[in-house]
Design brief:
This protein is mostly helical. The protein is built from 6 helices and no strands.
Length: 123
C-alpha cells in the first residue's frame, strides 16, 4: 500500500508539473495579447479568470478521461479502497481538481503583473 501511495504521489506531482508547464508556455506565447488587454483597461481579475478558464478546460478533459478509465477498472479499485465507494466521482477527482487549479494559479499570477508597455514592445 505504501508503494501504491508513493506512485500516486509521483503521478500527482507529474500532473501538477505538466499543467503548470502547459499553462506557463501558453501564457508566454500570449504575452502580447495580455499586454493589449491590460492596455485596453482589462483588470487583473479578468486576466486571472481567462487563465483559470483555460486551465479548467484542460483539467475537465483530464478528469473526464480519468473517471472513464477508473470506472473501467472498478473491480481493481474496489479492492484497494477502504470506506470509500469505488464509483464515487467526487472522491476520485477532488484532489486532481484542487492541485490542477493551484498549478494554473501561479502562472496566472505572473500574467496579472504584465506591464502593458513591456508586453507591447516585446514583439
Amino acid at each position: 500500500m505504501v508503494l501504491l501511495a508513493v506512485f500516486a504521489g509521483v503521478g500527482l506531482v507529474l500532473m501538477v508539473i505538466g499543467v503548470y508547464s502547459v499553462i506557463a508556455y501558453t501564457l508566454s506565447r500570449q504575452t502580447h495579447e495580455i499586454g493589449i488587454r491590460m492596455a485596453l483597461s482589462a483588470e487583473s481579475a479578468d486576466v486571472l479568470g481567462m487563465v483559470l478558464r483555460m486551465g479548467t478546460r484542460l483539467l475537465l478533459l483530464g478528469i473526464v478521461a480519468g473517471l472513464l478509465a477508473s470506472f473501467g477498472v472498478t473491480r481493481l479499485i474496489a479492492s484497494q479502497l477502504w470506506s470509500v465507494s469505488s464509483d464515487d466521482p467526487l472522491t476520485l477527482c477532488a484532489v486532481v481538481a484542487i492541485a490542477g487549479l493551484a498549478a494554473c494559479y501561479f502562472p496566472a499570477r505572473r500574467a496579472m503583473r504584465v506591464d502593458p508597455m513591456v508586453a507591447l514592445r516585446y514583439e
